Amino acid sequence: MTTQKIREDDYVLFYLSQRKTYMVKVEKGKTFHTHKGFIKFDDLIGKEYGSKILSSLGVEFVALKPLLRDYIIKSVRKTQITYPKDIALIVMFSGIGPGSRVVEAGTGTGALTTALAHFVKSNGRVYSYEIREEFLKTARKNLKRAGLIDFVELKNKDVSVGIDESDVDAVILDLATPWLIVSHAYAALKPCGTIVSFSPTIDQVVKTVEALKENNFVDIETVECLMRRMQTERGKTRPQTLMTGHTGYITFARKAMKPKA
Asked: All domains of the chain, ordered by start, with CATH?
């Protein structure tokens, strides 16, 4: 049985409670401080992920190995990130996997980019377009922290003037005017390639669907994903009072070949 031991420069998710978790980089000789006491990283190095460790105040933390969702939720943010519930559907609808070549626009701070890179590695590639250079700098930091920067090409370009790549497996759009990109996406996609667009308003969706129909896309579908947590306790189990409601609509379509003249 293989074990996963914590090494210097690894990331650890310190679990205190459902509401209190901290993702930190393990640095030799340094200390992590919380309101529940401090933890010396030297005491952590060499232990297995999942180990329990006491702070200086005797409070128990669990040192967990961060999951993909942790890298996304705990990412450095300058924009609203795409939620894991929506990312899961975007990945599923896109059909991408190891070796896929994917065009994404816009990058934002790289939450969705991180997920796409995770699924296309180790011989795939994500080409991510973003017009704001400051967002790309943050996205690069988040991708490096997740160990996925090698599978992404960040491009400081306006995707509305065209897509450089061709014969790609999927085009993923998370921007204000996705309908303006549909014709470029058609040209960039391989036959039967997929396009997935995430939009917060239904007006954006209607314009995008109209553009998809005009550009010979088929199998067009729009969905909304709602997720609510449950309070699970004997005699008190019920939906939690607060939830993240509407985040956006996901529109999916596939490229059909145009009839030959």
From this structure: 11-66 (3.10.330.20), 70-255 (3.40.50.150)
